[in-house]
Design goal:
The complex is a heterodimer of chains A (about 100) and B (about 375). With about 100 residues, chain A is α+β, with helices and mostly antiparallel strands. Chain A is about 35% helix and about 25% strand. Chain A has 3 helices and 5 strands, in the order E-E-E-E-H-H-H-E. In chain A, the strands form 2 sheets. Chain A has a 3-stranded antiparallel sheet with strand order 2-3-4. In chain A, a hairpin with a 2-residue loop joins strand 3 and strand 4 (about 35-40). Chain B has 15 helices and 9 strands. Chain B has helices spanning about 40-55, 70-80, 95-105, 120-125, 130-145, 160-170, 185-190, 190-195, 200-215, 275-280, 285-290, 305-310, 315-320, 335-350, 365-374; strands at about 5-10, 55-60, 85-90, 110-115, 150-155, 175-180, 220-225, 245-250, 255. Chain B has a 9-stranded mixed sheet with strand order 7-6-5-4-3-2-1-8-9, covered by helices on one side. Classes of the chains: A alpha+beta (about 100), B alpha/beta (about 375). The interface of A and B includes residues 28, 31 and 33 of A.
């Protein structure tokens, strides 16, 4: 799956690694021969990319956390940009989200 | 304010089973200056100090880094510190078990060179039969789940194989292929006449790269390192002197790039004598060309100085004899004639269908002779 719809589950690609950069007080996404410097929002999004949350769930969590509206497009564009560099991959939901699922 | 470094390249040893004639290592690598390699604990201290300075990317290179029996320990230390580590190797005699142990230790990325797309030419350029080991290692790398970069240095004797090189990397499932046109430092500068490509060769190869990029999209990243002698403007070498990058040599000297040791007018401090932080921030060699106050004309008044930082100091030293002048590959440099002459010599030889000059292999006996000459 190439483009993030709301139900797909984003995950940081195996070649990339999220790392705290204490010296510059930020987080970065490291990958072969490069890095992406993250602002607070980017950091928050990637920290929610745990391989179980869908894009819609990430958006929902951020809305609750920051009280921000209309962030869906920003989140999608951010993840889309990283996916174009092969740093994020998208998978279909791994299980049907039923109310009885113990992970919710 | 002094910028913070992001990149550290460590050359763990200058010993190497391969003998590539374009090697960027110093010509006198086998001489007294580089004799005593840092011990495991010294390297670990360098990693800690680099991390505290702001380094996030670590390249483990050489020579051949696999010749260090403590490589696994070094990788584990880098991993604990949060450094993203890349092994830059020839893969000569690299076993699957060793690579698995490095994975276990936390190695993030593997870059394996190949000298050409087929065994005959690759082994001839390397001066050592190594192609078979490389192909085996590419497969181990993928099996173990490493991201893989295939690195090929391009020059007159292999530029015609660019398409086959890309197809090889594709078939191996590599993430990236680095097609690195020879940068003329170290042994490459020594062998410049033998390695210099023709403009026609570069044009054909560049067309292939563009076509293959369109075909492959983001399935395989194709990095094309510019042949700067054939360009109009210099490269932004190392992103600027003492700005983001440093190299530590096997014996502990710290250089602003892996070729800088050749600049005889600078003195380089050693991690055995000084903390890395002092060397980066305070040592004369790092301060000498940091920022733009050192720049002469035509750089000083040039709007491109923020783009290319005056180009490469090592190239200015090697070609023009002065590390403090504009990179001679710049079309605005008063020394550009020297670059044009080297390029023209290759064109004339090709036009006359002369066989290319013989290259000297990068090997310890030749290096000792050069070191003795001083």
């Amino acid at each position: 799956m190439n483009r993030p719809g709301p139900v797909v589950v984003p995950r940081i690609a195996p070649k990339a690694r999220l790392q705290r950069d204490e010296v510059r007080d930020r987080e970065v996404l490291l990958y072969p021969e490069g890095l992406v410097a993250l602002n607070e929002t980017g950091s928050a999004i990637l920290n929610l990319c745990d391989g179980t949350r869908s894009v819609a769930e990430i958006v929902q969590t951020l809305k609750q956390r920051y009280g921000a509206e209309g962030i869906e497009r920003d989140v999608t564009a951010f993840l889309d940009g990283l996916a174009a560099k092969g740093l994020v991959t998208f998978a279909p939901p791994s299980y049907p989200p039923t109310p009885s699922d113990p992970r919710r | 304010m002094v910028p913070k470094p992001l990149w550290l390249l460590v050359e763990l040893t200058y010993r190497c089973p391969l003998q590539c004639p374009y090697c960027s290592n110093p010509l006198d690598f086998a001489g007294a200056r580089f004799k005593r390699e840092l011990a495991t604990e010294e390297w670990c201290r360098v990693f800690r100090e680099a991390r505290a300075l702001g380094v996030l990317q670590l390249g483990l290179s050489g020579g051949e880094p696999l010749l260090r029996p403590d490589l696994e320990t070094l990788v584990a230390t880098a991993h604990e510190l949060g450094l993203y580590s890349s092994l830059i190797t020839s893969a000569y005699r690299l076993s699957r078990d060793r690579l698995a142990a490095l994975k276990q230790a936390g190695l993030d990325h593997v870059q394996i060179s190949v000298q050409a797309a087929d065994a005959g030419l690759s082994d001839r350029i390397a001066g050592t039969a190594s192609y078979r080991d490389k192909i085996a290692a590419y497969h181990y790398t993928r099996e173990l789940g490493f991201p893989l970069t295939v690195n090929v240095v391009l020059h007159r004797a292999n530029l015609h194989q660019v398409e086959a090189m890309i197809r090889l990397a594709e078939s191996l499932g590599a993430e990236r292929i680095e097609l690195a046109n020879t940068q003329f430092y170290g042994w490459a500068f020594h062998n410049r006449d033998a390695l210099m490509p023709t403009k026609a060769q570069l044009d054909v190869a560049w067309e292939v790269v563009q076509r293959e990029r369109a075909r492959l999209g983001n399935k395989l990243e194709i990095v094309w390192v510019l042949p700067d002698y054939h360009e109009q403007y210099p490269k932004p070498c190392m992103g600027g002197w003492g700005r983001a990058y440093m190299t530590v040599t096997p014996g502990g000297e710290v250089w602003p790039c892996h070729a800088a040791g050749r600049i005889t007018t600078l003195e380089f401090a050693n991690v055995r004598d000084h903390p890395l932080e002092w060397i980066w921030s305070e040592s004369e060699a790092f301060k000498r060309f940091r920022g733009d106050a050192w720049m002469p004309e035509p750089c000083r008044s040039c709007p491109r100085k923020a783009v290319d930082f005056g180009g490469c100091r090592c190239q200015a030293f090697l070609v023009a004899g002065d590390a403090g002048v504009t990179d001679p590959v710049c079309s605005l440099s008063p020394h550009r004639r020297l670059v044009d002459e080297a390029v023209a010599a290759a064109e004339q030889a090709a036009a006359a269908a002369e066989p290319p000059a013989e290259w000297a292999y990068r090997a310890a006996p030749a290096s000792r002779v050069i070191a003795a000459r001083g």
